[in-house]
């Protein structure tokens, strides 16, 4: 009994630590959804230009995932978490000079560095949680930990809207009427709003990184094996490659939807619906993601993950169709409720994609994290469509994405017998 209790404690403590990290980095990255309309106004950007915020952020995941995986392979999970936190702190601190100079490319660089730190955290945390305990409960543990992260993601848009958006919208026509001096003063004031929140994040990440230096985390078996596997060998597993594309589509669709929710709500010209109030729909979206993950952690013990993924992808697809075919608040609520169906997509896709990989698990995990680059590519596609033919048509992009996730759930996740060895 004492051994079982000790073993359970050795799993619970590191799980709580990693879940705490997930809370804070999810909170930080979901402020981006508020940063888009804020910097769009502060730097006078088009929809396409403002969407580059997500490109810089999620592009870091694509470029840094493999280096992060290689670093963790050599140095271990705890070292990866510490490096991730300190790197994210450096990126957060760069918001101060970016705001001081009112220079959009520097904002993008700061976001890139911040996201590079989050890449280390995510490459570390996801496989660490999936391996920390019995294999059958991996999807459930990932779903529960993702739910903790979703609490931060739910809080972020509301807090961000209070810090960065105005209680009453300032029409672009009013901004256009400013004299050059008034305009410069206004834009500088807008940019300065980001200084305090991001300096606070920099301090938080630094403190957590230092604290983690003094906390001992248990090592995982595959961490001790240090098996050297060729990257090319991963391509022998079609279900993993198709899983990378499924992550691309899931992340791209979700990031694209929440990135343009405020912009879309303003296009509906609903009386009394300001940018600050529109941000509540992003919080509702993320709140439903949280609810779905809490329920999903239970349902995944009862229902096969592929079947749950079919339900999720089909539900999200139909809601995007409803949003595009309707107007007013019904359209906004349709988009918000997509969060419920996307809630457990990632943990299911991840666990199905790394199934039966053995020593290739870490490399595959890095490739799956690279799939997050969908968040860098889909929003600009939506931004270009929005600038060209209108914001509503931009949602064709996430529609296509959810159609592919449905394919992966039905067929793409199947493991070929000759690849099981």
| Shape, per Cα inertia axes | globular
Distance, first to last CA: 37 Å
Task: Output the CATH homologous superfamily.
Answer: MFS general substrate transporter like domains
CATH topology: Growth Hormone, Chain: A
Described by strand count, sense and barrel closure, the largest sheet is:
none
Count of DSSP helices? 21
Q: Which architecture per CATH? A: Up-down Bundle
CATH class: Mainly Alpha
Along the chain, the helix and strand elements come as: HHHHHHHHHHHHHHHHHHHHH
Q: Class by helix and strand content?
A: mainly alpha
- How many domains, as an integer? 1
Notes on the structure:
The protein has 421 residues and is mainly alpha-helical. It has a single domain, classed as MFS general substrate transporter like domains (Growth Hormone, Chain: A). The chain has 21 helices and no strands. It has helices at 2-29, 32-42, 47-75, 77-93, 95-101, 104-131, 138-164, 172-176, 180-192, 195-212, 221-225, 238-259, 261-267, 275-299, 305-325, 328-336, 338-342, 345-353, 361-370, 374-389, 396-412. Helix 6 (104-131) packs antiparallel against helix 19 (361-370). Residues 223-227 have low confidence and may be disordered.
């Amino acid at each position: 009994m004492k051994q079982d209790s000790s073993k359970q404690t050795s799993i619970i403590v590191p799980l709580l630590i990693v879940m705490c990290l997930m809370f804070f980095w999810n909170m930080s990255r979901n402020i981006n959804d508020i940063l888009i309309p804020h910097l769009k106004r502060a730097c006078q950007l088009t929809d396409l230009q403002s969407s580059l915020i997500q490109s810089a952020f999620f592009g870091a995941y694509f470029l840094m995932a493999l280096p992060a995986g290689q670093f963790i392979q050599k140095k271990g999970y705890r070292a990866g978490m510490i490096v991730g936190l300190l790197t994210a702190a450096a990126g957060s601190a760069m918001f101060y000079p970016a705001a001081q100079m009112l220079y959009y490319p520097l904002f993008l660089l700061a976001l890139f560095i911040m996201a590079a730190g989050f890449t280390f955290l995510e490459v570390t945390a996801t496989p660490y949680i999936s391996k920390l305990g019995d294999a059958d409960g991996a999807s459930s543990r990932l779903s529960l930990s993702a739910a903790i992260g979703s609490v931060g993601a739910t809080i972020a848009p509301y807090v961000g809207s209070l810090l960065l958006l105005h209680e009453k919208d300032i029409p672009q026509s009013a901004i256009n009427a400013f004299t050059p001096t008034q305009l410069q003063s206004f834009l500088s004031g807008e940019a300065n709003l980001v200084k305090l929140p991001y300096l606070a994040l920099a301090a938080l990440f630094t403190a957590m990184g230092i604290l983690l230096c003094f906390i001992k985390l248990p090592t995982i078996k595959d961490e001790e094996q240090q098996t050297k596997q060729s990257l090319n060998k991963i391509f022998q597993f079609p279900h993993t490659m198709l899983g990378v594309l499924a992550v691309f589509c899931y992340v791209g669709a979700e990031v694209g939807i929440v990135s343009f929710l405020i912009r879309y709500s303003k296009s509906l010209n609903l009386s009394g619906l300001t940018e600050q109030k529109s941000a509540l729909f992003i919080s509702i979206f993320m709140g439903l993601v949280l609810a779905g993950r809490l329920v999903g952690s239970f349902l995944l013990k009862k229902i096969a993950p592929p079947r749950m993924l079919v339900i999720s992808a089909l539900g999200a697809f139909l809601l995007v169709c409803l949003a595009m075919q309707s107007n007013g608040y019904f359209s906004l609520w349709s988009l918000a409720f997509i969060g419920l169906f996307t809630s457990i997509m990632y943990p299911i896709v991840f666990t199905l994609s790394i199934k039966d990989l053995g020593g290739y698990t870490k490399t595959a995990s890095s490739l799956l994290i690279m799939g997050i680059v969908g968040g860098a590519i889909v929003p600009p596609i939506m931004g270009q469509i929005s600038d060209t033919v209108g914001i509503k048509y931009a949602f064709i992009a996430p529609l296509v994405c959810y159609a592919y996730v449905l394919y992966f759930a039905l067929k793409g996740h199947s493991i070929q017998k000759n690849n099981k060895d």
